[in-house]
Amino acid sequence: MTEPTDPGVIPEPSGPPTHSQIFLGMLQVALSAFGGGLSAWSQRIVVEQKRWMSNEEFLTGLTVARLFPGPNQINMAVYIGTQFRGLSVALVALAGILLVPFTLLMGLGVLYFSVHELPAVDRVLAGVVAAAAGMALSMGFKILNQYWKDPVALLLAAVMFAGLAFAHLRLVPLVLVMGPIAMAWYWPRQEASGS
Amino acid sequence: MALASVSVLLAAACKPMHLGDLGNLAKVIWQFLSLSLFSLGGGNTLLAEYHHLSVDKYCWLTNSQFADLYALAEAAPGPSSMIVGLLGLGAGWHEGPLWALLSAYGAEIAILLPSTLVMVMACLGWRQFEHSPLRVAFERGLGPITLGILFAVGLKIVRTADVTRAGTLSIPGVIVSIVVCVLMLRTRISPLWFMAFAGVLGALGIINC
User: Fold this and answer.
1) Is this complex's ipTM strictly greater than 0.90?
2) Burial class (CB in 10 A: 0-12, 13-18, 19+), B133
3) What residues 73-132 of chain A have any CB closer than 8 A to a CB of chain B?
């Protein structure tokens, strides 16, 4: 999809990995991905290096991971895990992607709350925050392209945006109202589904 | 002037609750549990809700602390959704490090548990729904909804992040945000470089003075 793929390389799955291999692989994915871009990294590691699944399987997983609620990376870990031995591998994959980075981040957090009175730390963070805000801003533009030719989609998006940004409505009730409306509009018509 | 004093009054009225009380901790965890299934399109869609919870509703954090924690979560390796753990940490900080860590782990597990369970079920049963109209409607319908949320969240984060120490909008900050946004869309440069460069600009006192 959005990730560049090399069509010349068709990796062959080389037997199901063990629990510890999954844990270490997912840990590698988590630690490689400083500052976002996690899915590109996990593709490189899971498909090209470890050959745990084909590129097609990986992209299917990415679609499902994006579709369902929850962080993409976490959902992707669940998908990779369930491809092998089911639930226990999924748990190991989750632990691999979360445990070490989370502990690290909590360490940083404790440090932050202890020393953030230092003006130098404040100034550096103000800069980093401005860059991170730019990253958040870019996410909407990234998927805007695929909706240009669909005025209803743009209208739905505009109502969500106005409701949240200007009317200060809360997310949950707004999604509960707008979600079913959107699903009803995109419900497949009879002739389209008759295959 | 009148507006400023009103906001001071509001800030004073907002008291952080004591997480040392297990009932309050449970309430915090319940808040994140109930948001979990609404983290559409990858999780960052909930940032404005997190801000509402931790700054406006429970006052665990100040506005600038929230922005700092967001930057920390984005800059550190691993899934950026781990910001919830940092919010939990801030929520429990007044009670001492032990309670802070307890509420950090509790909050992170709470935000991940429901969505992860749904994902497990989806992975085990997704193929059976291949031709279901429900699946098609779900796939197509949630896209535009997510699009709207992402723009609202982007705007909210820019407003939260780019403020001077006096609390007004920081023009250099906004410029940095817009430049990073454009570079994110037009280039494949790792975002880590943007954050490092902006951190240097910040250290020079250009952003928040």
Assistant:
1) no
2) middle
3) 73-75, 78-79, 82-83, 86-87, 90, 94, 97-98, 100-102, 104-106, 108-110, 112-113, 116, 120, 122-132
Amino acid code (one letter) for A180: P
Mean pLDDT of B83-103: 89
Tell whether pTM > 0.90. no
What burial class does residue B149 get, using C-beta atoms within 10 Å of its C-beta: 0-12 exposed, 13-18 middle, 19+ buried?
buried
Contacts of A179 in chain B (CB under 8 A): 141-142, 145
8-state DSSP, A17:
P
Give the largest Cα separation in chain B, rounded: 62
CB contact under 8 A, B119 and A68: yes
* 3-class state of residue A52 by DSSP: coil
What per-residue confidence (pLDDT) applies to A154?
Answer: 95
Inter-helix orientation angle A72-82/A55-67, to 10°: 130
Residues 6+ apart with CB under 8 A from B169: B159, B162, B163
- B169 - beta bridge partners? B163
Chunked in runs of 10, what are the mean pLDDT values of chain A (195 residues)?
46 68 86 61 77 78 79 86 80 90 92 79 85 84 85 94 91 90 86 45
Residue B73 has pLDDT above 80, yes or no: yes
Instruction: Say which amino acid occupies A178.
Output: M
Give the pLDDT score at B178: 94
B35 vs B143: CA distance, rounded Å: 19
Q: Which residues on chain B are in Cβ contact (under 8 Å) with A157?
A: 144-145, 147-148, 151
The region, left, alpha or beta by phi > 0 then psi within -120 to 50, assigned to residue B165 is alpha
Mean model confidence pLDDT for chain B: 82
A121-151 confidence digits (pLDDT tens)? 778 888 888 888 888 888 788 778 888 889 9
| Interchain CB distance below 8 Å, B184 and A179 | no
Q: What is the DSSP letter of A69?
A: S
Beta-carbon contacts of residue B72 (< 8 Å; ≥ 6 apart): A105, A108, A109, A112, A125, B83, B86
Which region holds residue A169: left if phi is over 0, alpha if psi is between -120 and 50, else beta? beta
